[in-house]
Amino acid sequence: MESKIQSGIEISPQIKNSLMLLQQTNLIPNELLNDILELALKNILTPHKLASVSSITSSKPDLVKELYAALSDLIIQNARYDLTEENLKEFCSETLKLNTSYGQIITKFCNESKSAVQKKLSAITILSEPMLKGLNWKLDCIVKTSEAASVDTDAIYRIRLVALKYNPETNENEPTYISFSCDVLELTDLVSKLKDICHHVEKLTENTQ
Fold first, then answer.
1. 142 and 119, same structural domain?
2. Could you give the 3-state DSSP secondary structure of residue 203?
């Protein structure tokens, strides 16, 4: 299950678990946390000049890479969903249960960088495309015969994707819906293709670290 911040943003379990590592007091120095945030922001704003995570420290490389990926996602989601400082502060303290020092650093940084990230997202047209927020589905069974002894049915899935789309006129993310129907084989094929995309994205992420 994904974690939701007050505004409706959803954080994946993987990202949440990575951020929750910061529950540990003195896991990394505050200065290094700031360096990770600065590097994440730099790579978001200038993706054509990606800097390596190893450029900021040689200590705890696996941990730093994991935090870098999670914090990069949080910075983008914070801007994309236009979170308030209070939303993010509550998420850090109540959902992630971070220690006060780490929570304050992350909240302050995300709040101060939000405008620049929003401008970057707008410039590369990410916000103009629908962003998947969730989905609803139901299963319908179509009965082909009225014979009680031998009922022949087809299972049809009714899928409705719930997305947010940026409206430049209102400067807000507004809900939009995409509905379609499919049978079991078509749904299985769709899920398989989505998994392929996820694997491809994971490989691209690994190559930039």
1. no
2. helix
The verdict on 95 and 137 lying in the same domain is no
Determine the structural domain holding residue 82 and report its residue range: 3-126
Domain-ending residue, one of 100, 126, 152:
126
Quote the CA–CA distance of 167 and 172 in Å, as a whole number.
6
Q: Is the Cβ–Cβ distance between 57 and 71 less than 8 Å?
A: no
Taking only the tens place, the pLDDT of each residue in 42-77 is 999 987 788 888 888 877 889 999 999 999 999 999
DSSP 100-113: HHHHHHHHHHHHHH
- Going by C-alpha positions, the residue among 53, 58, 60, 66 that lies closest to residue 21 is 66
Which of the listed residues 68, 95, 126 is the one where a domain comes to its end?
A: 126
154 shares a domain with 66: no
Q: Are 156 and 181 in contact (CB under 8 A)?
A: yes
Domains held by the chain: number: 2
pTM reported for the whole predicted model? 0.58
> pLDDT tens-digit profile of 144-185?
666 555 555 678 999 999 888 777 666 567 788 999 999 999
